[in-house]
Structure formats: C-alpha cells, structure tokens
Amino acid sequence: MFGTDSDSDSISDAMEIIYGTDGIKADSDDDSIPDKWELDNGLDPNDPFDALLDFDNDTLSNLQEYSYGINPNSADSDSDLIPDAYEIAHGLNPLVNDAGDDPDGDNLTNLEEYLRGSDPLSEETEEPPYILWIGIPVAVLTLVGVAIFLVKRK
What's the predicted TM-score (pTM) here? Predict the structure, then answer.
C-alpha cells in the first residue's frame, strides 16, 4: 500500500492519508497547483487560498510561480540579482542566469538594464540626464579644489 499511488501525483496513497489529501485527485484543493508541488514548496495542498499568496514578496502569486516553474520561496530563482518578476515582465528567463547577456546589443547587460530601469530587449536606452555628465565632473573638481585649499591653508 505504501507504494500505491492511485492518482499518479507522486505521493503514495499512504502519504495521502497522512497529509489528509485526496488520494484520487492530484490537486486536492482545486487551486490549479498539484499537491506534490505544494508539498515540495511549503504550501498546504488542502488550502486553495495559498495559491493567491506571495511567499517571497516578488509580486508573483504562488500559482504564477508554479505556472512559470520558478521557486515560490525566492524572488530570484536563478540567483542572477535580477528579480523573477522583472525577468518575466521583460521577456527574460527567470530560470537562467542571464545577468551578463545583452540580447538587444546596446552594450548594457541585462543586470545593468535592470538597475537602470531600462528595457533589456530594446536598443533604445535612455542615457542618464546630461546634468549628470556635467554635474559630476564639476562636483569632483570642486571637492578637489576645496581639498587643495584646506591643505595649503594649514
């Protein structure tokens, strides 16, 4: 009996009794997430509402995470420093470390695009405002000038 699995969900009938799940249905709570996946990822296979929760606070529900095949307990399933939700929204693969890739050929990696808030699949990348190109060197020169003045003053 321990090896029998009437609903072919990779949970034996004996374990279904222990978990209190339905031994005839692979999804006991009818939340569109199989019991096995719920058990493997810390969800309750008898609670239909946990499909709507977002354990890792990445704006993707557990049901969405199941649908995409990503980890519901990690906001970055592939550990590439780019959140899963951003990768999905921008057509990247949240299961592949693609942080160093540059699919649009604009000389910015996917990680750089994420950090800048730009589109990793569009060559049109906005440059930082020109005030930064002027302001930063001016600020550096000013600080150097003040430092020289203070050193000579002593």
Answer: 0.73
